[in-house]
Amino acid sequence: MTVAYEVLMDADKRRIYDKYGEKGLQEGGGGRGGGMGDIFEMFGMGGHGGPGGPRGPRKPKARGVRKECTLEDLYNGKEDQLEFERVIRCKDCNGVGGSDPTAVQKCTDCKGRGMKMMVRQMGPGMITQQMVPCSACNQSGEVIDKAKQCKKCKGKKIQKEQHKLKVTIDKGMPHGEKQVLSGEADHLPDMEPGDIVVLVMQKPHKVFERKGADLVHEKKITLLEALTGFSFVLKHLDGRKIKISSDAGQVIKPNSMMTCVGLGMPFFKKSYEFGNLFIKFQVEFPDTIKAQESLNAISTALAKSEGQTPPAKDSQDLADEEVTMQKLEDRHKNTHAEGGKTHDHHDEEEDDDDEEGGQRVGCQQQ
Question: In terms of residue numbers, what domain contains 176?
Fold first, then answer.
């Protein structure tokens, strides 16, 4: 009988075939006399842990748990509690699955290995053998007398419980930081307790934006405040109320940033050091200034601050015509009019830029 190489996909089966030939595959190891046990041993599923010798209890894969924290929590530090569901050994049967140890018997189909060899006829003179989970014991290697099954876990050996766990949020802990808590996850039979990995997730904040150990606060001020000075009170993450003022004569430009040294976040694991606080200014301009006296006063004040004299009004004799600017409106656009620009994708981008930037102005002749 010939066994085709193309159906021997498993590397361990290939080694058995090369070492013991067809008879080795059919009898489970050939001349070593071990039968099926030798094959299980080579697959690492024997009772002695395979070729590498005894192996310790396995450990389940670590479980990740998200912990959402406010920026205040990360600034001040906090002791908090996590609550989650985990799987543990059944407390009634201590993970045995039956009312007593004698209720659990070795599966006769797979001889307690949880896997068994299945032989398939592929065609005339062609067979294949492969390891498959034992259906009689559901790959556990054990069967439990139903009359002696644990009434709480129904022979499954496990149960679910709500687990509470204390978590320490350190000062300055960064967003995405992982904290490993050993042995706090699932407790499964014949396995070591698993680990919990706590993933710290920072919630958005209404007042501050975090940039590493620095903080950014956006402040809106009027044009008058930008030119003549201002002060405001900012409540910090630890509850302090901090008065922030501009220097006399200091002019704040739109989108400019100023620094308050040492008012940022504490450094992670160096909580005695602090980052900085940046104030980003948004200057709100008035729509109009109607009083001529106010215009004259502003013109005079700005001219004196720059060591200049107020500009004289240009003579109308130097111009052929005079126009007054108007606020841009959609009706002023003539992109689609006959004889105007060709309406294409480029024009759409220009129109969008005009609307967003607000830099174009319309002019009306007088």
Answer: 60-85+160-204
One domain for residues 245 and 215: yes
pTM: 0.58
How much is the CA Rg of the chain, to the nearest whole Å? Answer: 39
Domain match, 176 and 280 both: no
Do the Cβ atoms of 229 and 246 come closer than 8 Å? Answer: yes
Furthest-apart CA pair in the chain: how many Å? 119
pLDDT tens per residue across all 366 residues of the chain: 333 333 434 555 555 555 555 555 454 444 444 444 444 444 444 444 444 445 567 887 888 889 999 999 999 999 988 888 888 888 878 777 777 777 777 887 787 777 888 877 777 777 787 888 887 777 777 777 777 778 777 778 888 888 888 899 999 999 999 989 888 888 887 788 888 899 999 999 999 999 999 999 999 999 888 888 888 999 999 999 999 988 878 888 999 988 899 999 999 988 788 999 999 999 998 888 777 766 777 777 666 666 555 555 555 567 777 766 566 677 766 666 555 444 454 455 554 544 444 444 444 444
One-letter-per-residue 3-state SS of 140-153 = CCEEECHHHECCCC
